């Protein structure tokens, strides 16, 4: 039977077959994810676990059959395979592993990964396949015309709700019995705190992730950091563009607003580059960290060494600040590992300067263009981001060195003190790692840290704060006012007045919010002095994660305040304000001028 005859035979049943396959895949994806959560979070009996895994493997086998049927019903089969190459690769791995396990008695995934000491490899493989199929089906449902017509939600509100969904999902997973080493399940407020801190890439912790969570719990923590760092919408839209019919105009508009790209076309290109760039930098970072572990850092096996490398690379690039060591990078095995500290600092800088800047400065395409045209300058956003970030890093390095030279740096030589000062300056603005005892810092140092944390990272990055560009625009606006200049200028360009209004709005909103939350914390947790509370609050709002050691001791009301602060700081004060605001009925009129005495 030739291809044309086969297509004619299948044509009449194509719509019915696709409807059945879609419903079957959706139901089985939900069932597989539910069984995985139940197996890894609740079940203790080995016999029951084996039964659950057999059921999950059966579901994965059905996924493979459905994929082959979709190829059969796709009349342009070569184009279909090319378009769904990632899904096809995943299904091929499942097929090979199923044949090896149940036909030849040789579980391929288990033997390959367990052979190099990577634990839970089979479970992770099942989780990846099931989650992928579930995400694929959810995206298809969201892209149907029925849903688009029924749900008219602004992109900013969708962005806010996506993080709510992510942190609630993380909370539920953390509360499962097998996610922690504690005799009882994690309290709701503590689980919500850790899920929010991970999803909002903050790094504040009420428990020690390295000892309190089991390996499964640490995997959940890592997934929340990765998805929170880039945004769950970014992942969803990326998968939609990678698979099947691609992304519609509505998704492009949403990502255009959230990524603040210059055009819808640039958003489409930026999205795919963003994911691949992130995974590439994290992979390189994990490899270099893996090679930099000193002899003092001991691991149970090669798999745990690899996991620690991946975890710290992702945590650093996403500016999360979580570490599997009890005192962060100040813990004794890695306290003097200055090569490791510098690698982590570089990952933090890459994650903090923003994806648009990375693409403009460091992408192969941009570097080739500048080799051919050396006179071509960086974009204005890149220049402001890099020069401001470099100035703040220098300010923090010199300031920390001078303020702490006879305190926390007193036992280090000049070079060690300089590296430590540089690391703390880099990590303070957004990441939250520490190589010194934060609780032992002088008050002037804490005040400088609060200033650096409040400014934070750059637009389009994984960091928080009011952003470096906001700080720069405010400075330029103030200088223009002092000099009595009509326009704000930078790099032979004029900054529109609405940009300064936006910058001052963000600053005012952030300042009022922090002052209010500090006031509330001074009531709920009066046992701590105001400096420690202010440091904790600004660290949470700027999604930094540094703490003077009071996080675990906060009251439930205080933890709730910090949770709200982390969430608002991550989604952005401007995004929150836009989501809650309503448009003015008309902006075409102008009232007469009035004069007010200010200053």
Short description:
This protein has 599 residues and is mostly helical. It has 27 helices and 2 strands.
As an assembly, this protein is single chain
Extended strand count: 2
What characterizes the major β-sheet?
2 strands, antiparallel
Q: Helicity level, as a percent range?
A: 55-70%
Terminal residue distance:
87 Å
Tell me, rounded to a whole number, the average pLDDT.
81
Shape: globular
Percent in strands = under 5%
User: Which structural class do the helices and strands define?
Assistant: mainly alpha
Query: Can you write the helix and strand succession as a string?
Result: HHHHHHHHHHHHHHHHHHHHHHHEEHHHH
Number of contiguous helices: 27
Low-confidence stretches: 143-151, 242-251, 260-266
Give the strand order, joined by hyphens, for the main sheet.
1-2
Q: What is the CA-based Rg, rounded? A: 26 Å
What secondary-structure arrangement, pairings included, does this model have?
Layout: H1 3-11, H2 14-41, H3 46-73, H4 77-83, H5 85-102, H6 108-115, H7 121-143, H8 145-150, H9 155-174, H10 188-199, H11 209-212, H12 215-230, H13 232-242, H14 249-259, H15 264-292, H16 302-317, H17 338-352, H18 355-361, H19 364-372, H20 380-404, H21 414-428, H22 443-455, H23 468-482, E1 488-490, E2 493-495, H24 497-524, H25 530-541, H26 556-571, H27 573-580
Antiparallel strand pairs: 1-2
Helix pairs in contact: 2-3, 2-7, 3-5, 3-7, 7-13, 9-10, 9-12, 9-27, 10-12, 10-26, 14-15, 15-16, 15-17, 16-17, 17-21, 18-20, 20-21, 20-22, 22-25, 23-24, 24-25, 24-26, 25-26, 26-27
Membrane topology: Multi-pass membrane protein
Main location: membrane
Keywords: Cell membrane, Ion transport, Membrane, Transmembrane, Transmembrane helix, Transport
């Amino acid at each position: 039977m030739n291809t044309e005859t086969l297509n004619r035979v299948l044509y009449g049943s194509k719509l019915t077959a696709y409807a059945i396959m879609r419903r079957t895949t959706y139901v089985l994806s939900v069932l597989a994810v539910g069984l995985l959560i139940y197996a890894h979070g609740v079940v203790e009996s080995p016999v029951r676990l084996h039964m659950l895994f057999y059921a999950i493997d059966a579901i994965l086998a059905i996924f493979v059959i459905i994929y082959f049927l979709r190829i059969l019903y796709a009349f342009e089969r070569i184009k279909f395979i090319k378009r769904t190459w990632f899904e096809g690769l995943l299904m091929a791995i499942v097929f090979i592993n199923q044949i090896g396990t149940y036909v030849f008695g040789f579980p391929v995934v288990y033997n390959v990964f367990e052979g190099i000491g990577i634990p839970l490899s089979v479970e992770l493989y099942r989780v990846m396949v099931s989650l992928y199929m579930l995400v694929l089906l959810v995206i298809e449902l969201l892209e149907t015309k029925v849903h688009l017509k029924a749900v008219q939600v602004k992109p900013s509100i969708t962005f806010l709700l996506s993080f709510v969904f992510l942190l609630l999902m993380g909370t539920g997973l953390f509360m499962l019995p097998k996610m922690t080493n504690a005799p009882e399940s994690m309290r709701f407020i503590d689980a919500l705190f850790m899920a929010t801190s991970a999803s909002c890439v903050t790094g504040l912790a009420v428990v020690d992730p390295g000892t309190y969570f089991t390996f499964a719990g640490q995997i959940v923590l890592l997934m929340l950091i990765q998805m929170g760092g880039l945004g769950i919408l970014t992942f969803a839209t990326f998968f939609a563009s990678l698979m099947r019919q691609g992304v519609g105009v509505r998704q492009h508009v949403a990502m255009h607003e959230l990524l603040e790209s210059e055009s819808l076309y640039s958003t489409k290109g930026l999205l795919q580059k963003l994911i691949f760039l992130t995974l590439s930098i994290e992979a390189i970072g994990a490899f270099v960290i893996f090679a930099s572990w000193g002899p003092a850092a001991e691991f149970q096996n090669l798999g745990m060494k690899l996991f620690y490398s991946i975890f710290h690379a992702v945590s650093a690039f996403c500016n999360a600040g979580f570490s599997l060591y009890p005192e962060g990078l100040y813990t004794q095995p890695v306290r003097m590992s200055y090569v490791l500290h510098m690698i982590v600092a570089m990952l933090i800088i890459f994650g903090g300067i923003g994806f648009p800047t990375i693409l403009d400065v460091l992408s192969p395409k941009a570097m080739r263009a500048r080799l051919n045209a050396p006179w071509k300058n960086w974009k204005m956003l890149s220049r402001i981001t890099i020069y401001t970030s470099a100035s703040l890093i220098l300010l923090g390095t010199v300031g920390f060195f001078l303020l702490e030279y006879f305190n926390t740096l007193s036992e280090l030589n000049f070079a060690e003190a300089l590296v430590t000062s540089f690391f703390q300056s880099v990590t303070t603005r957004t990441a939250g790692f520490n190589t010194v005892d934060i609780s032992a810092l002088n008050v002037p140092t804490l005040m400088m840290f609060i200033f650096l944390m409040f400014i934070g990272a750059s637009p389009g990055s994984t960091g928080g704060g009011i952003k470096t560009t906001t700080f720069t625009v405010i400075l330029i606006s103030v200088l223009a006012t002092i000099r009595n200049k009509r326009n704000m200028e930078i790099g032979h360009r004029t900054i529109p007045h609405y940009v300064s209004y936006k910058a001052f709005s963000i600053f005012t909103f952030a300042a009022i919010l922090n002052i209010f939350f500090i006031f509330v914390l001074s009531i709920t947790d009066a046992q701590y002095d105001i400096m420690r509370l202010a440091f904790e609050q600004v660290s949470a709002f700027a999604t930094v994660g540094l703490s003077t050691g009071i996080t675990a001791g906060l009251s439930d009301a205080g933890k709730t305040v910090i949770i709200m602060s982390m969430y608002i700081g991550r989604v952005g004060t401007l995004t929150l304000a836009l989501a809650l605001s309503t448009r003015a009925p008309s902006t075409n009129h102008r009232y007469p001028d009035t004069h007010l005495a200010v200053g």
